[in-house]
Amino acid sequence: MQFGRIYEEFEVGAIYKHWPGKTVTEYDDHLFCLLTMNHHPLHLDVNYAERTTDFGKNVVVGNYVYSLLLGMSVPDVSGKAIANLEIESLRHVAPTFHGDTIYGETTVLDKTPSKSKSDRGIVHVETIGYKQDGTIVCIFRRKVMVPTREYIDARGGEQPGRPEPTPREKK
Fold first, then answer.
1. Deepest of 2, 77, 101, 113, by most Cβ within 10 A of its Cβ?
2. The model scores a pTM over 0.85
3. Would you say residue 160 lies in a domain?
């Protein structure tokens, strides 16, 4: 199974459909809110959401949706990244609710070799997240510095430092 890509493997226009999707639970949303100290009642208080919002129910905090999609994209996009350079744009297009399943896909917009080092390049991508009914909920663009084959080979290959299992003792 591939984890990330080297610069040479990216093609402008390629689309990576991230799999599997993730069904967002109330627990996921509340834990993320508590971990990030976002205590807005829109996310945490059912009574508040039912009585005072246009949606009539809790809305999943947007940064969780973004983080989920970013994580989903790692095996396809940034698993070998040297650095995440920039989040160029981030738009929350539609709300996500508890019980929605989020899917994501990333399109390669551009790639440019590094101007200062020949062993790396910059890949510009756009990731979209959508719900089980196809409604787009989040779109973001980012730039990632990824290694070339030269970089990987100079550092011991795909999984440098991975130990070999020691033989079992025979009984």
1. 77
2. yes
3. no
- How many CB atoms sit inside 10 A of residue 63's CB? 15
Report how far residue 129's alpha carbon sits from residue 131's, in angstroms, rounded to the nearest whole number. 7
Q: Give the mean pLDDT per block of 10 residues along the chain (171 residues).
A: 89 97 97 95 93 94 97 95 96 97 98 95 98 98 96 83 84 73
Question: Which whole-number Å values give the CA distances from 73 to 29, 70, 119, 154, 171, in the listed order?
Answer: 20, 5, 23, 26, 45
pLDDT digits (tens, 9 = 90+) for 18-51: 999 999 999 999 999 999 999 999 999 999 999 9
In a domain, 50, yes or no: yes
Q: How far apart are CA 123 and CA 14, in angstroms?
A: 12
CATH of the domain at 65: 3.10.129.10
Nearest-CA neighbor of 92 among 117, 128, 125? 128
Residue pair 47/33 in contact (Cβ under 8 Å)? The answer is no
- Specify the number of domains making up the chain: 1
Phi and psi (nearest 5°) for 47? -60, -50
In a domain, 4, yes or no: no
With respect to residue 125, please indicate whether it lies within any of the assigned structural domains.
yes
